[in-house]
Amino acid sequence: MDITGGCVCGGTRYVVNSRPFALVDCHCIDCRRSAGAPYVQWGSVRREDLVVTKGKPRKIAHADRIRSFAACCGTHLFFEDSKDSSAIDVTIASLDDPTPFAPQKTIWLEDKLPWVKIDESLPSLRRGGPASPSRRRVKLRRAKGYGAAGTNKHEFSERLTTDCADGTDLE
What we know:
glutathione-dependent formaldehyde- activating enzyme (gfa), 1 helix, mainly beta, three-stranded antiparallel β-sheet, single chain
């Protein structure tokens, strides 16, 4: 089973060789800011099942995790707990056909924007949780000026009140 996806301009393409699992809508502030959207839908795949076929994503380390963006246009593509995690999360909207991958859970409702409507039929978590093997728990921390940070992989472990200069480009 090959599932294809890529960035908005077509400069970065990838293939997933298995069906994404642990399909979640994440409302955490980290996902919202990195995508410039009210929430992001993720699906996990085994690391060995994800192959970048064109371009080279730009990897950014932040909050002890790694986000990958298309270097050509900035589309948010992947999320990793670490460089050797067994699973990688893929932005479902970056798939060529995301329609078969409806969310199974909603996470980080404590960070949800007040005007976003939630599908009440889905299980939901106030914070994150171990929704896939790639997700790990981290120590709960209080974030200055932004309220409580949570315990799932998408949290800010430290938030700066000045700028985003704490992100480290891994390329």
